[in-house]
């Protein structure tokens, strides 16, 4: 075989290998992007469901306040809960907007940064939710009024009410500890990781892993 023919044959092989690698990369990217879209769609549905529930609860609390304007204790209890619900609704709306703005035409690193931002956003609102622990009695008051038709603040035993106040005070340092502990830097702690995952972080982590596989395949 002549030298020119050998070089042409090698060039042909190189071209076929390059085509095969390009097809393989395209197939991997397509598969991983599909997986990433699937988990983000799951998070989107979860956020929309939480948004609808939040709006429904807000409407209920608004009506509750309206029909109990004569009782300041019930109005304050409902208002406290409503503040946290509105914050949660705001978080759901932001998550929905961020997910809908996700663009797979951008680089993997850019999308990884956006996913990291989304996960940090989820953690922020999760941290805020644990601050409700010392205010749990507001839920008890509304529950007694809705289910039994009584204002437990007015008719409850004094000793029991004092015990609830003490318990609320004891919950305050626990809530602060949880607030400090639940953070992005503590995701290596198993229980923190599970709590964040249950709040939607699992979807984001999976999407980040799928995109990372694309980047690894490209570099490999």
Averaged pLDDT: 78
SS-based class: mainly alpha
Q: Summarize the helix and strand pattern as letters.
A: HHHHHHH
Cα end-to-end separation? 34 Å
Quaternary structure of the protein: single chain
The tally of helices reads 7
What's the count of strands? 0
Strand content: under 5%
Main sheet overview: none
Residue stretches low in confidence (pLDDT < 50, at least 5 long) are 19-25
How big is the Rg? 27 Å
**Coarse shape:** elongated
Task: Provide structural commentary.
- This protein has one domain (3-219).
- It is built from seven helices and no strands.
- The chain has helices at residues 3-67, 72-100, 108-130, 136-148, 152-155, 158-181, 190-219.
- The longest helix is centred in the first third of the chain and has 65 residues, at 3-67.
- It starts with a helix and ends with a helix.
Structure at a glance:
Helix content is 85%, strand content 0%. The chain has helices at residues 3-67, 72-100, 108-130, 136-148, 152-155, 158-181, 190-219.
Descriptive terms for the model:
single chain; 220 residues; mainly alpha; 0% strand
Task: Write the SSE topology.
Blueprint: H1 3-67, H2 72-100, H3 108-130, H4 136-148, H5 152-155, H6 158-181, H7 190-219
């Amino acid at each position: 075989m002549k030298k020119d023919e050998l070089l042409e044959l090698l060039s042909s092989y190189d071209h076929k290998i390059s085509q095969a690698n390009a097809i393989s990369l395209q197939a991997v990217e397509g598969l991983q992007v599909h997986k990433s879209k699937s988990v983000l769609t799951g998070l989107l549905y979860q956020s929309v469901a939480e948004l609808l529930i939040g709006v429904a609860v807000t409407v209920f609390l608004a009506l509750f306040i309206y029909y109990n304007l004569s009782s300041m204790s019930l109005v304050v209890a409902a208002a406290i809960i409503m503040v946290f619900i509105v914050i949660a609704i705001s978080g759901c709306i932001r998550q929905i907007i961020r997910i809908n703005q996700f663009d797979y035409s951008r680089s993997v690193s850019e999308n990884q940064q956006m996913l990291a931002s989304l996960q940090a956003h989820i953690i922020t609102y999760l941290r805020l939710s644990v601050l409700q622990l010392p205010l749990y009695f507001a839920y008890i008051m509304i529950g007694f009024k809705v289910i039994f038709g009584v204002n437990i603040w007015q008719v409850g035993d004094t000793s029991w009410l004092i015990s609830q106040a003490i318990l609320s005070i004891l919950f305050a340092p626990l809530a602060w500890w949880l607030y400090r502990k639940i953070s992005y830097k503590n995701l290596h702690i198993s229980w923190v990781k599970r709590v964040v995952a249950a709040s939607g972080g699992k979807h984001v982590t999976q999407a980040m892993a799928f995109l990372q596989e694309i980047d690894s395949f490209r570099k490999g």
